[in-house]
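Recall from the previous chapter that SMILES is a line notation for molecules. Here it describes adenosine-5'-diphosphate.
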Amino acid sequence: MGIEFRGVSKTYADGTVAVTDFSCTVPSHSTLALVGSSGSGKTTLMRMVNRMVDPSAGTVLIDERDVRELDKVALRRSIGYVPQAGGLLPHRRVVDNVATVPVLTGTSRRTARADALDLLARVGLDPALGRRFPSQLSGGQQQRVAVARALAADPHILLMDEPFGAVDPIVRRDLQDQLAELQAELGKTIVLVTHDIDEAFRLGDQVVILRTGGVVAQTGTPQQILAEPADDFVRDFVGADRAERRLTTTEVDGRRIVVDGDGRPVGVLA
Amino acid sequence: MTWLEANRSYVLDMLLQHVQIAVPAVLISIVAAVALGRLAWRWRRVGAVVLGATSLLYSVPALPLLIVIPVVLSIPLRSDLNLIIALALYGTALLAGTALDAFRSVDPRVREAAEALGHSRAGIWWKVDLPLSFPVLLSGIRVITVSTVSLVTIGALVGIQSLGNLLTDGFQRGIHAEIVTGIVLTILVAVVLDVLLVLVGALVTPWRRRTPRARSRRRADDTAAVSA
Ligand SMILES: Nc1ncnc2c1ncn2[C@@H]1O[C@H](COP(=O)(O)OP(=O)(O)O)[C@@H](O)[C@H]1O
Ligand SMILES: [Mg+2]
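With both inputs in hand, we obtain:
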């Protein structure tokens, strides 16, 4: 399932220009990371895929089909969605949150719950947590539940809106690793929104850096962007000049050690 | 006590009457206020006007209202329906604003996530908006329940039977026991209905019951998740 943004723009009713003539193709089984500061139109772009937002101009295609031809509700049920922090249904138990979409599409509650417990284990949660309500979980656990919920109907496409933006850095790293692991296994087509360039580089096969107004500053693989930042904005945004990105090698006891700009060792050159 | 014993069936009759008027009035108020609150939530401008007009209703004195309603709807003055409609109008006026607050209390992030998962419009209403706005709505329902139960007594002035009759009759005939019985039972009905509402509320909103253990457990789990 590939996704194509074909010249999409979005101007909201109040005149806010959120996205300007954006084009991009996300090949099947790959991850597109949309990164930019707050208000740069990332969420707006992502929402065009499941028609939470309809573009003012241009089209979004899934497998060559214009999403506008598809029924909104059916389309959304067929796409996994991980909202920002606080998007779980607070009044449903964890297991029922995970089972939401299968139940909506007619799977019996019993089967959906059993599957949901398996999914909790897959995202690194004790299935016993299934009985709790979201408020009884930590922020990190809640986002794991959100990932499990998005995977419950086994969708081909996954939309993630700053899924780990509100959890502390150590937990975030852990969640990113787990997502990378799941993705290696599942091969979904993912659109990931983040304001964290490290997260974008870590998880994105393709990274789009946006400036205000949803204007593309640069598109490319993490390697391309780091190697050749398009301009000062991108250079600044990816922190190409940041000490921890300026790596050099030194030789210690015959082994080549990589150190960052502050002289801290970060690894050994193989 | 002797008065009460001698008049047991009469008192029971009035008690039953009282409840039969109060409960439908409250139920109608809830439905009407939720509808108005929803309207006001959906369309701000129209909503502000409608809610403003509704709250004005509350300033109409009860006795004139009990005379106007039968004229407008051509129903008998001395009918339960007359009083039920009047009380429902007051209840709606009191509750509509709370209903709007209740819908506003629903976290928009939750509503949006529910929509993005593929809930239909009706699905969002029944499965998200209604349950999540219920706690705030319930606080308003408790207020109008108590006020409606006490207002039912007014019907006695135009001859609609309720516990209010114990008050008017007691005053006219100077029977203190009757007056006290009327007051105590009215309060009792209000208290019993309020307790029922609180119980039902706790029963249908299990997610709001916080065990004290939950907080400390939460922290422990995060460390566990990291080290896992
Ligand atoms: N429903 C809306 N109505 C009006 N303006 C909006 C709406 N949603 C977003 N915007 C505006 O559009 C711009 C882009 O928003 P968004 O796509 O949410 O950015 P990001 O996700 O990158 O923070 C912002 O200026 C935001 O205020
Ligand atoms: Mg956003």
